[in-house]
């Protein structure tokens, strides 16, 4: 009887152990499945985060690339517009000119570089102009302009001079001085102590009135200037005027505007 009890107890104990083992195994497997599910969820979430980061990075790169492209286009457009404007200015408004010779000393000297305006100017006394001296004009006994043959003349070239008398004004040169409308000119720009003599033009017809559409010009270096007083230059027709000097830009240390150069004293 006691033996039977022992056998039953042993079987019961063994069965209990097996049940406990099975329960532990089931719990372990369940825990493993939960861990696997959790790991999968973490991995899935990590993939989502990585995907979002990638999308954000790609969006940022696209935005940066678009901004860089837009900025580059703006710079290129601005540069082209600037070049176009500068080109238009130097083609239609301003032209660089090199001074040759000393006829405009001391205001302008040989090799000086100036900028002249080719439009929007009305010539007046004191203006410095660049002239295409391809023709010369005298006046007849009635005071009307007449063309003079200057073929082979060394002065048949571009010259730079100062406007002394404008259309309708009376010019006179006597006693080494210049007079306009009967008044002696105050010419602080003329070379110091230089005389203004008639030279070879107009055959002693001074004084005379400058015809409409013409100008009487002279260089500031009066004793070394071939200008309207010379038969090879004579009166300057308006159509011969290339432009009006605006500024001297070289030498750089002598940069100056030439608008009011008539008021500057000679050195």
Which helices and strands occur, and which strands form pairs?
Elements: H1 2-93, E1 94-98, E2 113-117, E3 128-132, E4 136-139, E5 145-148, E6 158-165, E7 170-174, E8 177-180, E9 183-184, E10 208-209, E11 214-218, E12 236-237, E13 241-250, E14 256-257
Antiparallel strand pairs: 1-2, 2-13, 3-6, 3-13, 4-5, 6-11, 7-8, 7-10, 8-9, 11-12, 13-14
The rounded distance between the terminal residues' Cα atoms is 151 Å
Which term fits the overall shape? rod-shaped
- If you compute it from the alpha carbons, what radius of gyration comes out, rounded to the nearest whole angstrom? 49 Å
- Percentage of residues assigned to helices: 25-40%
- What is the helix tally? 1
Number of β-strand runs = 14
- Taken in chain order, the helices and strands follow as HEEEEEEEEEEEEEE
Tally of individual domains: 2
Supply the helix-strand structural class. Answer: alpha+beta
Could you give me the name of the CATH homologous superfamily of the largest domain?
Umud Fragment, subunit A
Strand content: 15-25%
Mean pLDDT: 81
Per CATH, the architecture of the largest domain is Ribbon
CATH C-level class of the largest domain is Mainly Beta
Describe the biggest sheet?
8 strands, antiparallel
CATH topology of the largest domain: Umud Fragment, subunit A
Q: Uncertain regions: pLDDT < 50 for 5+ in a row? A: none
